[in-house]
Amino acid sequence: MVAPVAEHPTPPPDQGRPLRRDPAFLRLWCGATLSGLATWALPFLLGFAVVDGTLGVGQLGVVLAARTVGFLAAVPVGGVLADRHSRRATVLWSGLAATAATPLVVVGLGWSTTVTAIAAAVVGCGQGACRPAYQALTAEVVVEERRQRANAAMSLAVRGTTLAAPGLTAMLAVLLDTSALILGTALMWLGAALLPPAGASAPRPERRRGGPPPSWVSSSTACGRRGGTRGSWPGSPRSRR
Amino acid sequence: MIATGYSATGVILPLVSRDHYDGEFVLVAATTGYTLGALGFAVVVARWRPRSPGWASLFGLGLYGFAPLAMMLEAPPAAVVLAYVLAGVGIELFNVLWFTAIQREVEPRLLARVSSVDFLFSYGLAPVGLALITPAVAAGGVSTTLAVCAVVCFLAPALAACAPGARRYSRRSVDR
């Protein structure tokens, strides 16, 4: 007997309007941009903390390393969660985790490097878990014919951030202290968590009858098993919204 | 490619900027040029549909090799900056076509997992390269290390382009 296959959300049909006027894509783009901006900002602002003396250079290394470890640990977990549950929910919870942990980064500054490092690791987890979920959510929100343009628009935001953000942040630093600026990244994470549109409902967990659920490794190599044409996966409805 | 190319930029570019170009100008101009190249080409690749997207994308990735090559040759500052603009253009071409292909080719129920593997290798290899490049410079010198980086940056995408389905980043072109 054929094993039941998870339902897969698909984007609504192309309604003919430009991508820049598609509310769902705009929300996704804003969320992704905010998450990229917050990701860029934390190490830059921790550099400010070194300059103003609230963080030592060695401590900065520890905090950034903790953040990277959190990121790398959460990327595969986020990928599995986003596939087994809802991509939108994964974006929400990972963004909220980063939002909640960011104030603790500030609390630990000048007091406890351990607290700052643990908080930075949680921020890194949120950042890592949301990346694959955002990637998959894009495929749920944007029809295939427009995805290249959508990906270019997302990338444009990242490049624009890299170019403009250091100068803008330096200007803001005249008005606000480092702690306030870091707290500002919590608001960015909140936006990254809340803004993206709801994807279609979560796919049911994929379980083969009588067998264990597919593992991360085994299913990561299974992309070669597809047959048929685009948008016609076995058991996949054409449109769910 | 990431372990060599990005590490050359992260570690050797500041070194070369200081030692061969007498200051931070080349460092700042090259990194800005890289971002401007990527930014500008994002607009182009939003509309451009190459006939062989896989080969175009891998060609773009290979353009990164000009960055270590220009530094190895101790090219004039403008040439180093131009190499970084090219690298930015190429990375943008690669990224956009690659992400689009993954979203198209990977079965939806596995898309986030496959993306996570992609990110894990990209981000996971970067620290490894950064950690290894300083001992490599100490052992073989700046020029030799840059030469190795350039060869890897040119060769790795060329080899990937030979894989079945690479031309259009499509399994259907292999099945045919």
TrEMBL record, chain A:
Key words, A-Z: Cell membrane, Membrane, Transmembrane, Transmembrane helix
Region (Disordered): 200-241
Compartmental location: Cell membrane
Parts forming coiled coils: none
Compositionally biased residues, Low complexity: 231-241
Sequence ranges assigned to domain Major facilitator superfamily (MFS) profile in this UniProt record: 24-241
SUPFAM superfamilies cross-referenced by the UniProt entry: MFS general substrate transporter (SSF103473)
Segments passing through the bilayer: 25-51, 57-82, 181-200
Membrane protein topology class: Multi-pass membrane protein
Protein's UniProt name: Major Facilitator Superfamily protein
Protein source organism: Actinoalloteichus caeruleus DSM 43889
Automatic annotation (TrEMBL), chain B:
Source taxonomy: Bacteria, Bacillati, Actinomycetota, Actinomycetes, Pseudonocardiales
Species of origin: Actinoalloteichus caeruleus DSM 43889
Ubl conjugation found in the keyword field: no
Name recorded for this polypeptide: MFS transporter
Localization annotation: Cell membrane
Transmembrane segments: 25-48, 55-73, 79-99, 120-139, 145-166
Superkingdom: Bacteria
Main location: membrane
Membrane topology: Multi-pass membrane protein
Keywords, sorted A to Z: Cell membrane, Membrane, Transmembrane, Transmembrane helix
